[in-house]
Write a structure and sequence with these properties.
506 residues, mainly alpha
Length: 506
């Protein structure tokens, strides 16, 4: 499983629970028994553990809530941790026996599936998420708020925070719906019959809404969806059959080899190989519209990768398989509709991996672009050689490359990404389910925020804004709004204790 598959399974299960709870006929079903209530609370604890551990892993614990880089995320993470600790202390996570036993009650079974995904995710995908802060350490003196090098992981970590805030919102809504049943411990730890919670979720609701407003202002990437445990690539061994079956086998091998990122030179040649293969296949199929679109995308990508290089990455195994497919295609004169559909499916998978590798390689400097030559220092005999210079990929050095890769990615069907997981669709489904299941009579996130806590920023907050470099006006506006709305207390201790309120900025 990858991070996308784990998170998608969680979002799908919680979306189903929210939708089912909102159907009137569901309210006529029998209430949960004492054992079923225990199971649901144990499954909920497993899900909450995944949310809390991944959030704490990606959000630095040494930043203040007023920090313009991490303040909203730290604010959410602090509230989440208090709720998670208080809840899981009374209702521990599900046991292996509970996770492995299917339940005839659809509601309990949906909770079990979510808990299974969370448990497997903690076992296999947590390390991939926890390593995000260490992948590209920040260089002193270089701002990283834009999410570009040396902090590519910054934007990916914000994606994890945003995903977890949405899951937390769903858990709170489900807690409100189920909380009236005997023996149910509300989120925060207190039993329902006591009439009062130990830790209120109102602060968590406020924090997650502030956090999501802020994270949604960023351009959140999907590259984190590809991280996690992956099975070894399935490569077809032995001699390749002639004709179209051999072409399909070679293309599948190409897609399998692309699980590992090739080096810059291999990627440049692979793009040209795929462009030529698309041209030949379109000629055989009679200028298929889908192949025509792919041919246009690769024409742009070929031009954009003319100066692409970089020695980091794997060998050119995917290029060899692609060239083998081209060689076998020479003897093909006709393609059946079934073979055409199979070829398009594999080509879409190749497109997604190529586009993802190009964008990620540009961000972490695995791929570079040639940027002129300079004379080296004199060698033996006083000879000075012209040495090729390389530059990072950005809008100045390669203005067409990233837009071309993004265009190729946009033409790829969602179903070909991240295995069987459809992360983008599940994110939208959960947002719709949360919106539909948030009744006006409960503390909805929008009504909780209310007006800002203050009219003007303090001098310290204003200085932080002026010193920061924001990737877009939307992020700057969202950060400004958060600083106006954030509580003055941090960790339960007044930030200006004994000093009076900080004077507003003039």
């Amino acid at each position: 499983m990858t991070y996308a598959q784990t998170a998608t399974a969680l979002r799908t299960a919680l979306s189903d629970l929210l939708v089912d709870a909102d159907v009137p006929r569901a309210r006529t079903q029998r209430p949960l028994t004492a054992e079923e209530s225990r199971l649901v609370q144990a499954y909920r604890a497993s899900v909450l553990t995944w949310i809390n551990r991944t959030t704490q892993a990606v959000v630095p614990d040494d930043v203040a809530r007023a920090d313009v880089r991490w303040g909203p995320a730290r604010h959410f993470a602090d509230h989440l941790n208090r709720i998670a600790v208080a809840t899981t202390t009374l209702t521990p996570a599900a046991s292996t026996l509970d996770l492995g036993t299917m339940n005839p009650n659809p509601t309990v079974e949906s909770w079990r599936q979510a808990a299974v995904a969370a448990t497997i995710g903690l076992d296999r995908e947590f390390d991939a998420v926890a390593r995000l802060p260490q992948l590209h350490p920040r260089t002193p003196g270089r701002p990283d708020i834009t999410g570009t090098s040396p902090g590519r992981n910054y934007a990916e970590r914000l994606r994890v925070v945003d995903d977890n805030a949405a899951l937390t919102n769903a858990l709170i809504l489900l807690d409100v719906r189920i909380g009236g049943r005997p023996g149910w411990h509300r989120l925060g730890g207190a039993r329902n019959l006591s009439g009062r919670r130990e830790v209120s979720t109102d602060g968590l609701l406020n924090a997650l809404e502030l956090c999501r407003r802020w994270t949604r202002a960023h351009d959140l990437p999907t590259t984190v969806d590809e991280r996690g445990h992956r099975a070894a690539p399935e490569v077809t061994p032995g001699p390749v059959r002639p004709g179209m079956p051999g072409v399909l086998a070679a293309l599948r091998n190409t897609a399998a080899r692309l699980d590992a990122r090739p080096n810059g030179e291999a990627m440049r040649l692979l793009v040209r190989s795929q462009a030529a293969l698309t041209h030949d296949l379109a000629r055989i199929t009679g200028d298929d519209p889908a192949l025509g679109t792919r041919r246009a995308r690769y024409r742009q990508l070929v031009e954009a990768t003319t100066n692409l290089g970089g020695k980091l990455g794997g060998p050119a195994l995917a290029l060899l398989d692609s060239e083998q497919a081209r060689a076998l295609l020479v003897d093909v004169t006709a393609v059946t509709p079934a073979e055409r559909d199979q070829a398009l499916d594999v080509l879409h998978a190749i497109d997604h991996k190529i586009a993802t590798h190009v964008r990620a390689g540009a961000t972490d400097a695995t791929y570079l672009v040639a940027h002129g030559r300079e004379l080296a220092m004199p060698g033996p005999g006083g000879v000075r050689r012209a040495v090729q210079q390389w530059a990072r990929i950005d809008a100045t050095t390669a203005p067409v490359l990233l837009p071309a890769a993004r265009a190729l990615l946009e033409t790829t069907p969602v179903s070909s990404t991240a295995g069987d997981a459809v992360p983008g669709q599940s994110r939208a489904d959960l947002d719709r389910a949360v919106t539909a299941a948030t009744p006006d009579r409960t503390a909805s996130t929008s009504s909780l925020l209310g007006p800002p806590a203050r009219d003007t920023l303090t001098r310290a907050d204003l200085a932080r804004l002026r010193a920061a470099s924001f990737p877009s006006p939307a992020v700057e506006a969202a950060t400004h709004d958060y600083l106006l709305r954030r509580p003055q207390r941090s960790g339960g201790v007044p930030t200006n204790k004994g000093k009076g309120k900080e004077p507003p900025a003039r």
